[in-house]
UniProtKB/TrEMBL annotation, chain A:
The modification 4-aspartylphosphate is found at residue 66. The keyword Phosphoprotein applies. It comes from Salix suchowensis. Keywords: Phosphoprotein. Residues 16-131 form the Response regulatory domain. This is Response regulatory domain-containing protein. The lineage of its organism: Eukaryota, Viridiplantae, Streptophyta, Embryophyta, Tracheophyta. It holds the Pfam family Response_reg.
From TrEMBL, chain B:
GO terms for molecular function: histidine phosphotransfer kinase activity; protein histidine kinase binding. Keywords: Acetylation, Cytokinin signaling pathway, Cytoplasm, Nucleus, Two-component regulatory system. The keyword Transcription regulation does not apply. It comes from Salix koriyanagi. GO terms for cellular component: cytosol; nucleus. This is Histidine-containing phosphotransfer protein. Histidine-containing phosphotransfer domain (HPt) contains an active histidine that mediates the phosphotransfer. Signal peptide: none annotated. PANTHER family: HISTIDINE CONTAINING PHOSPHOTRANSFER PROTEIN, PHOSPHORELAY INTERMEDIATE PROTEIN YPD1. The keyword Cytoplasm applies. The lineage of its organism: Eukaryota, Viridiplantae, Streptophyta, Embryophyta, Tracheophyta. Residues 39-134 form the HPt domain. Transmembrane segments: none annotated. Functions as a two-component phosphorelay mediators between cytokinin sensor histidine kinases and response regulators (B-type ARRs). Plays an important role in propagating cytokinin signal transduction. GO terms for biological process: cytokinin-activated signaling pathway; phosphorelay signal transduction system.
């Protein structure tokens, strides 16, 4: 469980995350950002890879899900993960800012939505939701 | 340690990229905090990646526009990738031009869209030229530290 103590994150067990994004710049930045926060993470290039990684038995505390990806987009991938029983914190990350488009993404099963560019502050706001929910979901 | 003259040149070049609106000061300054001894070439790497990928995205948008019928799904994906990566990097002008381009095509205004694509290409060419120089200077500064 992630606990916020005196302005920093105390991790009972090391947190893990999956970055799902088709763009190499965002993959690199988000991977580094999570690393700097002490969150072990790996990258999937699209929704199908994210599904395959979960089918292999891996689970994550946090999934950062891009919306627009080839092969399988973030909306479809989020729906599939929820249908598979994955209860990890899934945060949608996109440049879309039209209310209806964000709503559509949220309704697929997101716990949170953040507009790009992603920053440590935005990730910490997502982590607070994991903290407040009192559990790490698998 | 990089020579004083080189460091000064680097600083002036960096500032000019901000002053010309080519890069967003806040976003780039934030990305620079992600670089450390574990990943000392982080900034260079993401700039180099963007120079490579943004070229591919723009080329793909142009090709999709030239096909008959126009390949809208490919164009859409490439425009979103360019929008997303330019936002994450702080490439403000490219991000702005991409947003304008997307709007024209989504509104079905093909003529304005094509003109906007030319503007994006010109902006991108300027960006590539200046950023390539900056990345070169960053590499030089690092090499002179050894």
């Amino acid at each position: 469980m992630a606990t916020h103590i005196n302005g920093s994150w105390e991790l009972g067990a090391k947190m893990t995350a999956l970055v799902v994004d088709d763009d190499s710049i965002n993959q690199t930045i988000h991977h580094r950002l999570l690393e700097q926060l002490g969150i072990e993470n790996q990258v999937a290039r699209n929704g199908k890879e994210a599904i395959d990684i979960h089918c292999s038995g891996k689970k994550f505390d946090l999934i950062l899900m891009d919306r627009d990806m080839p092969i399988m987009n973030g909306i479809e991938a989020t729906r599939k993960l929820r249908a598979m029983g994955i209860r990890s914190m899934i945060a949608g990350v996109s440049t879309r800012c039209v209310k209806q488009e964000i709503q559509e993404f949220m309704e697929a099963g997101l716990d949170d939505y953040q507009e790009k560019p992603l920053t440590s502050a935005k990730i910490i706001s997502i982590l607070r939701k994991i903290h407040h929910s009192g559990s790490i979901s698998y | 340690m990089a020579s004083t003259a080189l460091r000064q040149q680097l600083s002036i070049m960096r500032q000019s990229l901000f002053d010309e609106g080519i890069l967003d000061h806040d976003q780039v300054s934030y990305l620079e905090t992600l670089e450390n001894e574990d990943d000392p070439d982080f900034i260079e790497n993401i700039f180099t990646l963007f120079l490579r990928d943004s070229t591919k995205y723009i080329d793909s948008i142009e090709k999709a526009l030239e096909t008959t019928p126009i390949d809208y799904p490919v164009m859409d994906i490439m425009m979103y990738r360019l929008k997303g990566s330019s936002a994450s990097l702080g490439a403000s002008k490219i991000n702005g031009e991409t947003n304008t381009l997307r709007k024209f095509f989504h509104d079905g205004d093909m003529e304005s869209g094509k003109a906007s694509l030319q503007k994006l290409k010109a902006e991108h060419a300027n960006f590539k030229e200046k950023l390539a120089v900056y990345v070169g200077m960053l590499k030089q500064a690092k090499l002179s530290e050894y």
